[in-house]
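Changelog note: in this version the structure field was regenerated for every chain. One regenerated record is shown below for reference.
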Amino acid sequence: MLLVIACLLLLAGLAGSVLPVLPGPPLGYVGLLLLKLGGYGDFSVRFFVVWALVVVAVTLFDYFLPAWMTRIFGGSRAATIGSTIGLVVGIFLLPPLGMVLFPFVGALVGELIADSENIGKAVRVAFGSFTAFIFGTGVKVAVSLVMIAYAIAAIF
């Protein structure tokens, strides 16, 4: 039973790497823990400590990256909020394309609300937000896939 739950958590972790409603890498980490508890993984304490640090770092990185990139590209808090709203709306209206397109549109609209005089700046800020989303998602997917690879190696 633990094996099934662990595998489901690892898959949910991968899904959560692109869906903001699920905490991707933390779910995968719990899946690895359950593999160990179920006797399927011969993972060491050091393995779990290192992976805990990786999961925490990736989670914090993903949380702070959009705001940081938006600011680097000269954006306002409204652009950051717009990007987040766009991501949530995009998940429901037009998955999976909406998850990529709507954060860009949300950041653009947010920045135009904050500074309607500078369309070029708003586009630049929206591109920064989009870049952060793509990069953060890529890192989470990579971490989740590596955890799945460890799980597969442990099971077989």
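Spot check on this record: The longest helix spans residues 119-155. Residues 2-155 form one domain.
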